[in-house]
Amino acid sequence: MSTQASSSKASPAYFSPDNDDFDDAELYDSDDNKFDDWVEEEENKPCLSLFGPEKMFESLEAALEDTKKNTGVDLGALCSMLELDFYDRMRLVNFLRKQRPTPDVVAGLTGREPFFSDDAYLIPAIEDDPLLHMPQDDAWSDDDDTVPKPASAAAPSSSQSIDPSRELRRANRAIRSLQQQLSQARQDLVDYKGIVNKTLGVSDVKQWVEMKTGGEGGREDPQYFDAYEDVADDANLEI
Question: Which portions of the chain have biased composition (kind: Polar residues) (predicted)?
Fold first, then answer.
């Protein structure tokens, strides 16, 4: 699906999953190798429910699991089925937050709805919404694991020996592939925030809200959320 903002970028050569000569020490010494903590931090942020009465969950995973259990909507599976790219996912999340459609409407999405081509839905409906950091299911898969194996090769027999060096190379490729995917995801988020900031004409959404509310109040203040409602209007956008 085409978008006005492209998320494709050339990855550094040392992230290549096929480069077996890559120095693992360099991988683990780089700042990007702290991605485990980064992912855990994002996934453990409180997350607002998607449907029905507003309810705050302790984490993104809890919110998605509750949505799947009680409404039958698997948001990750839906994004994969519709083959949504990064920006389409952002539009979908902000559409859900802004319009609050029913589960039946969401389950019936085809990917051809007008909001998927409307950049107004790139503007966050909720500041730092954990749903905007929702991982892509296909981003964490290893190509080696997606190739079907014959039943006879599913598990080695006791008489077959496992080549440790081959398994190590495969594990290293998987690690580098995950690292590459995370690096791209983090860059996508930076680009996304840049698009929003450029559209609003301020350094960040939070600054804009503080300007509208006089820096007073908080999430419990209705004026706080009213300010977000005015973001698109001040940017001459229609949501």
Answer: 1-10
